[in-house]
Amino acid sequence: MDMKPLLILNQIISIWFNYKYAAIYRGILNVRVVFHFRTRTLTEFGYSVLSEKVRQLVLS
Prior knowledge:
single chain; about 90% helix
């Protein structure tokens, strides 16, 4: 499957909506991707969320 139309669509949506809605849309897209690369992607995602929370705690 050609990913180009999907990437263009993602950019249009990102510009069209504000950042919050674009982030939600990308989140949905990422969940679909996670389905294909389950464990590794989930682990990395969990780690990035965790490190982001830690960073916020440290900075606050």
